[in-house]
User: Fold this.
Amino acid sequence: MSHEKDQALIFELSKPGRVGYSLSALDVPETPIEELIDSEYIRDEEPELPEVSELQIMRHYTALSKRNHGVDSGFYPLGSCTMKYNPKINEDVARIPGFAHIHPYQDENTVQGAMEMLYDLQTSLEEITGMDEVTLQPAAGAHGEWTGLMMIRAYHEKNGDHHRTKVIVPDSAHGTNPASATVAGFDSVTVKSDENGLVDLEDLKRVVGDDTAALMLTNPNTLGLFEEHILDMARIIHKAGGKLYYDGANMNAIMGRTRPGDMGFDVVHLNLHKTFTGPHGGGGPGSGPVGVKKDLIPFLPKPILAKTEDGYVFDYDRPDSIGRVKPFYGNFGINVRAYTYIQTMGREGLKKVSDYAVLNANYMMRKLAPHFVLPYEQHCKHEFVISGKRQKKLGVRTLDMAKRLLDFGYHPPTIYFPLNVEECMMIEPTETESKETLDEFIDAMIQITKEAEESPEVVQQAPHNTVIKRMDETTAARKPILRYEKQ
Amino acid sequence: MKFRYLPMTEQDEKEMLAEIGIDSIDELFGDIPENVRFKGDLNITEAIPENDLFKKMSQLAAKNVNTKDYTSFLGAGVYDHYIPSIVNHVISRSEFYTAYTPYQPEISQGELQAIFEFQTMICELTGMEVANSSMYDGQTALAEAAFLSAAHTRKKKVVVSKSVHPEALSVLHTYAKGPNLEVVEVEAANGTTDLEDLKAAVDADTACVIVQYPNFFGQIEPLKEIEELVHQEKTMFVVSSNPLSLGALKPPGKFGADIVIGDAQPFGIPAAFGGPHCGYFATTKKLMRKVPGRLIGQTTDEEGQRGFVLTLQAREQHIRRDKATSNICSNQALNALAASVAMTALGKKGIKEIAIQNLQKAHYAKKKLEENGVEVHFKGAFFNELVVKVSKPVKEVNKALLEKGFVGGYDLRQYYPDLDQHMLIAITEQRTKQEIDTFVKELGGVQ
Assistant:
């Protein structure tokens, strides 16, 4: 290769005649394929898949893995993503043949262990969230949001309320919230945040009406602040006939301290790959269970997992159900991991998880506050937002500081989100990090602010130590190359 | 009680509280209104130590019949295929599985490059120009294909064959309610899409036609004839396809498909009671800027070195918010990695060999079944699945087969009342001649 830092594509390592597999020889009499399939439907051009040996494959992916940063590689304070430790027992349990190698269409009598596991997980999540019933069908957070909104829509329609076309979303909300509303057939209306970073109640009263289907809320919100007027908000929405939707992305802050169900939420989704340690996997798979209050139970996706005297069954007889949102029963493998985690921690442990996640975040916030602009003074929950406006005046942007953190071996925080804080950085340490790790990161952040004053070019030109430098994303989007082509 | 995932010591806690200027962690939760604070203990289990928990979970797993201990002829969208050992070793590298979405390209080149390779392999197999980085599963990918078609053509009618996976149909009906799409189902009484019925259903208001290849019954749909009907109108041609079959079958891209979707589960991904699997989404360059989900693109860094980034993000929810046409965020990245490793291990030769073994073994099974007096229901060309008629309820047949060590076929009754006492069986390369012979004999015997 022309660049020593470049890792060849697997296709570039290919050489005709090499194999990376072994199959038993065909042990049944062979019929010429032309006698089985019309020749028009027989593949005549071979797909250009690589031809490589097993060691070449392993070296290739090992080299790639070294070019990737995971939680096991180092600190990953990516706000809103809950990059906590992924327990190893979870991985082992999910690979037990009785979980990994069971088919979704086996007779129910042959999968009672799996169904018991799912049922217990549902029950645990109902207790943790304070909801009446949970479905494990949605594949991820956004999928859960859309599922919840489809149920709210079905509920209103069942009541003859066809004019409820609007979903209210705070300006600090995750992008998936308005997108899910659109995909579920609603229009989004934005409600502003006030000077304390919380939903502006006056603005909420202004936008709410008899066309309101729901308010989607993350609590604590994406600034890491608890919406302390939650009961007033619930009253406003419920009085107008709307439903209150809880985005569970930030559940890691409140376990054992408060429950969405008790705050007045009607629908909740959870991200099991965040709070409940399903690994993020480089972007998925996740699992996005949805919990509801009683009046929404009839609309849950079918089938419903039920416990009867004769064991666990899937109940398809649900006339008001919104239908299926996913084939089979959800991302079972991720649910196994979450269930394993819940049992590892237990009731006492889960509360400690939230307590320490919040303690770690407040500690970091106070230590970093003198060096940045802290937009909101109150205690945060499991994450917080600081602004790099002061450094911006020196010509160093938050993006530059994030890139400089890469040189220290850290994954940077979430940047430029939420949208309502200028030059923001959103930091979520999680409870699984030690005080020493937090202190080292804080020192690195302080050093970067000094560099911004004394030698801004060091920050502006960062990163310096990574396998590649900043990428030309403009060309990537203007002239997209989305696959390898043989030269 | 101490927890092995929580490094906080009493000393740490004391120092941190002092730094914050408070006396207890409780104060950090003081902004939660008094009447919604949770008091007491959550009614869930006590913490279980590692050894005990592994034992407990093993016992729970042991209550399930697994397809390692039993010989499975069950498919219907989820298959028992060869998983090279290397797959699990690669996806167990925690730099991959403990990483988030690769938004920071400088420290995510491994994931980005691996998925760029995945996109390429999906393009190669399907005969399409562009593939995304994955979807939840084949069924939701199918619904997203309908969304894209409707948005692109600005039409509301989705025509779908009854021979696509029944749960894809169910998911499509649920999704369609969002943007108020009309879903019209086309008959497939003889095992493949009824062309007359299809012709009658497609008109100027049709956004797309969706078929599956090989279809749910294992039959090979006449894509050539279907394409001609579809493209007579300005209608998109969507094909759902088992990518493993495309080692032997001519890819949908060669038949003029506009979108090809499906599930890469046959490549290195265990059944896992139905998930997580790995949807894929492939299309033409023309539609590249409308594809749902994440796309990885090749570019260079400021020193001219090749590298990879998430690209065309202006399509996605975090930028477009309420203007987005899909809300997908998390996908199935780790499973896309697993599929890539499996496709790489199989390679150019292996993909063909494995596909042909499926085809040959399934045809051998058909011959044996017929020789033993078992009726094979549909007569058309097929890949690795076939429908057989049994003389008792399928549930009873499967119960008897289980006693002989077999996981029997899929009971078609649930979604196809006309096919009561019919089961769909899958014969993959994993099934030996002896297993097929014994299964056929037992199936004949229990009837």
Notes: The longest strand of chain B covers residues 206-213. Chain B has 13 helices and 14 strands. Residues 132 and 344 of chain B are 18 Å apart (CA to CA). Chain B touches chain A through 204 residues (CB under 8 Å).
